[in-house]
Design brief:
The structure holds 2 protein chains of 2 kinds.
Chain A (H helix, E strand, L loop, with lengths): L1 H19 L2 H21 L7 E7 L4 H11 L4 E7 L5 H6 L5 E5 L3 H6 L4 E8 L3 H25 L7 E8 L6 H32 L1 H6 L5 H30 L8 H25 L3 H17 L12 H6 L4 H15 L3 H30 L1
Parallel strand pairs in A: 1-2, 1-3
Antiparallel strand pairs in A: 3-4
Chain B lengths: L1 H5 L5 H21 L1 H21 L7 E7 L4 H12 L3 E6 L2 H9 L5 E5 L3 H7 L2 E8 L3 H24 L9 E8 L7 H31 L1 H6 L5 H29 L9 H26 L2 H18 L12 H9 L2 H14 L3 H30 L1
Parallel strand pairs in B: 1-2, 1-3
Antiparallel strand pairs in B: 3-4
Helix pairs in contact in B: 2-10, 3-8, 3-10, 8-10, 8-11, 8-12, 8-14, 10-11, 11-12, 11-14, 11-15, 14-15
Classes of the chains: A alpha/beta, B alpha/beta.
Chain lengths: 372, 383
């Protein structure tokens, strides 16, 4: 047992040396996750802070000016064009100069004073319908503010029902808060998977795998020796991203580190199991890489990272049950933002354990199978 | 004689013959290597099916808990409004702790709370409905908030029509979404997927094949033949470009016939801009592999500078208007952004030349620059 441990440690040491010995290797291991984390932290957001818009104000009244002043003063909207004719809206939107156009009819103020509802038409560029929806939501909020002010100024009763909203765990509903914790799993998985799959494939291609086989190592030990370094690298990467999230983006960490790392360890084990399975199937580095990319794409895009899993058709939702990243994202988001404890995370933890418990022995069996 | 012939600039016909024979060799290699076919044909089909159906930002059937603390008819009616809404899958509860428990387990994404004094406050014209959302997925949470507002708004409007209360706000907003009336997110996600798939075929496959040749030394072997660097480049570009076209055709067919994304521009423009982008993608693959030469490093780099940005920095999912200037600069330096703009315009808006011309020009410039640089790097390796 002790001898076996020592052998595994020796192999781990050798793997780590091979990984870290050249500066290029060190670079590709640690710089890309940091750069990606920073970049995506800024990019991966559905929030808008700059909405170019065009105005067709056919009323030119005090009321319409007041409404437009509210838009201009919001800090989000900036006016790129003031048009005279509604027909001009088409070209401004078509050319993507404005994301939306606001059209105020000529009897806007008259209708307002008459107490009847006055319409404001908002036309949005639906080429990205999600962005358009968010921008229209902002317009809605501003108009609500205008309404409240108008009602107060003219002694009108307010709306009979007020809806007060509050968001748990993310009071300002910033997408970044959701996105960056989920990057912990995503970026780590990419590298761990590739590392594991490549390390065996490289030895196979260079013929050193056969040399490894004639040593006293048993297949399970070789596997453990390949898994352990990836596990270490994965943990270090996850920590790096965690640090960027807290020190750079200043997203408050609500949970316990022990819970997070326990969840991540299980996730890494599952990811490594898949990586080893890939490496036991392929013969060359090229195949290992292709395989990794091919499975990594659906893993990433169908993980709930970019679009929620609950929006997917039922059949695909079942398919995501075998995706370890799905659970990792849930774990890191919930521990990070909500401070969820291990008990409530069980529905995420046991599938990861199952994935690891299936892939690792199967990979070990495949290794042995190949030897004979 | 052959030595003598070498001293003259090779004729165009001879050059063409050499390129043609190399293309034939490359094409055979593609056909005989199942993994290339898998990437070029099978992968696009799987990806577009999987993601076309899987990626969606359209939130519906949101599980919410409606906590009805007021048994009055008004409150019950409002709660029924939530239960009947097509956007919600409401569970009617009577106690808040129960609802909080469901929320903590993420069995519901929001809580609508109707307080005990709702009916009394309503008669005074100042009732309040509390909406709590689970903010872990911020985008979804915001959409749910909007739906809840709308559900309450509809209920008030109905009551106003019946003359029970005062009407809602004096100004009402009428929304219209151009190019996508149905507000269907697959309209912009599917064209975005085409960008991802083209990038994958164009860059990754080319990188892998070229880096393999560098690693095995077969490219150096080619250099000692009369074939010139430019001709090698051309012969590598053509087959993978053709393979990419096959993938492109499959993607466009799928987006029209499976996902019913309207194609409002002309097919010719679509084909033209796609070819331009494919050329850029292939050229990037060639350049990366001729600089890095090792399969591992080259493919890592390709993922980093082509595929990941195509997902994140292209405007495919996330709007680039809101990112800080330095990040936007990076996005502008990468080709994917231009292709996403072009595809979304050609598919949904039509042939808007003021968008098509500048974006295509950038892509064409990038393709030319990349191919020239690649040629220079390859030539340098010869010396």
């Amino acid at each position: 047992m002790l001898a076996s441990m020592l052998r595994i440690l020796a192999l781990t040491r050798k793997e780590l040396l091979a990984l870290l010995k050249d500066p290029r290797g060190r670079f590709t291991l640690f710089i890309p996750p940091i750069v990606q984390c920073l970049l995506y932290g800024y990019v991966a957001s559905y929030d808008l802070n700059d909405v170019p818009y065009a105005v067709v104000d056919q009323d030119h009244s005090a009321a319409s000016c007041e409404l437009l002043a509210r838009l201009d003063g919001s800090g989000v909207f900036h006016r790129v064009a003031s048009l005279d004719r509604a027909a001009d809206v088409k070209s401004v939107i078509d050319q993507q100069r404005a994301l939306l156009a606001i059209q105020i009819g000529q009897d806007f103020q008259r209708q307002l004073l008459a107490g009847g509802p006055a319409d404001v038409q908002v036309i949005a560029d639906g080429r990205n319908s999600n962005t358009a929806g968010v921008a229209m939501g902002y317009v809605g909020t501003i108009v609500e503010g205008f309404n409240a002010q108008w009602q107060a100024d003219h002694g009108l009763p307010g709306p009979p029902i007020r809806v007060t909203t509050r968001a748990w765990y993310n009071p300002n509903l910033e997408t970044r808060w959701s996105m960056i914790p989920s990057l912990i799993g995503t970026l780590t998985m990419m590298q761990t998977l590739l590392l594991t799959a490549m390390s065996v494939a490289r030895e196979r291609e260079q013929g050193t795998f056969d040399q490894l086989l004639v040593t006293p190592f048993r297949p399970a030990e070789i596997m453990a020796g390949k898994a352990l370094p990836s596990m270490l690298v994965g943990t270090v990467q996850a920590t790096t991203i965690l640090l960027v999230a807290q020190l750079w983006f200043r997203i408050p960490f609500a949970g316990s580190l022990a819970t997070l790392y326990a969840g991540l360890a299980l996730f890494l084990l599952a990811a490594i199991g898949i990586g080893l399975l890939v490496s036991s199937l392929v013969a060359t580095m090229q195949q290992a890489m292709l395989f990794t990319f091919v499975i990594m794409m659906p893993f990433t895009l169908l993980s709930g990272l970019a679009t929620p899993i609950s929006n997917m058709p039922q059949a695909l939702q079942y398919l995501t049950l075998v995706n370890p990243l799905r659970y990792a994202i849930d774990i890191s988001q919930r521990v990070y933002l909500e401070g969820t404890g291990l008990g409530r995370l069980l529905p995420d933890l046991w599938p990861l354990a199952v994935i690891a418990a299936v892939t690792l022995p199967v990979a070990a069996w495949m290794f042995r199978h190949r030897l004979e | 004689m052959p030595r003598h012939a070498l001293q003259f600039p090779p004729s165009f016909a001879a050059s063409g013959r050499r390129v043609w024979s190399l293309v034939r060799k490359e094409a055979r290699q593609i056909v005989r290597d199942p993994s290339s076919i898998a990437i070029g044909v099978v992968l696009p089909v799987i990806l577009i099916l999987l993601f076309g159906y899987g990626l969606s930002l359209d939130v519906k059937d949101v599980p919410v808990a409606v906590v009805l603390e007021d048994p009055s008819p008004d409150a019950t009616e409002l709660a029924a409004g939530f239960c009947l809404s097509p956007y919600f899958q409401a569970q009617l509860l009577t106690s808040m702790p129960q609802a909080k428990e469901l929320m903590l387990d993420r069995r519901v994404d929001g809580i609508v709370r109707i307080r005990p004094d709702f009916a009394r406050q309503l008669s005074l014209g100042q009732a309040e409905v509390q909406v709590l959302v689970h903010g872990t997925d911020a985008n979804r949470a915001r959409i749910i908030q909007g739906y809840a507002q709308e559900a309450v708004g509809q209920w008030t409007a109905r009551r106003a029509a019946e003359g029970k209360d005062a009407a809602g706000g004096p100004v009402t907003v009428q929304q219209r979404l151009w190019f996508n009336d149905a507000n269907d997110s697959s309209y912009f996600l599917v064209p975005g997927l085409i960008v991802l798939i083209m990038t994958l075929i164009g860059s990754l496959l080319t990188t892998l094949v070229m880096a393999r040749e560098w690693e095995r030394g077969t490219l150096e072997a080619l250099f000692v033949t009369p074939v010139r660097a430019g001709e090698i480049l051309l012969s590598k570009t053509i087959p993978y470009f053709a393979l990419g076209l096959v993938g492109l055709t499959l993607c466009v067919l799928a987006s029209s016939f499976l996902f019913h994304v309207p194609l409002r521009g002309s097919l010719g423009v679509l084909a033209g801009v796609s070819m331009l982008y494919l050329l850029v993608a292939v050229a990037m693959g060639l350049l990366i592999s001729s600089v890095l030469k090792s399969q591992f490093e080259a493919s890592m780099m390709t993922m980093l500078v082509t595929f990941m940005p195509a997902t994140m920095l292209s405007g495919f999912l996330f709007d680039l208007r809101s990112v800080p200037a330095p990040v936007r600069l990076i996005a502008h330096a990468l080709p994917a952004r231009y292709f996403v703009t072009l595809l979304q315009t050609v598919f949904l808006a039509g042939d808007v030349w003021s968008v098509i011309v500048p974006n295509s020009a950038v892509l064409a410039g990038m393709a030319a620059a990349l191919l020239l640089v690649t040629r220079a790097t390859m030539r340098k390796r010869l010396v």
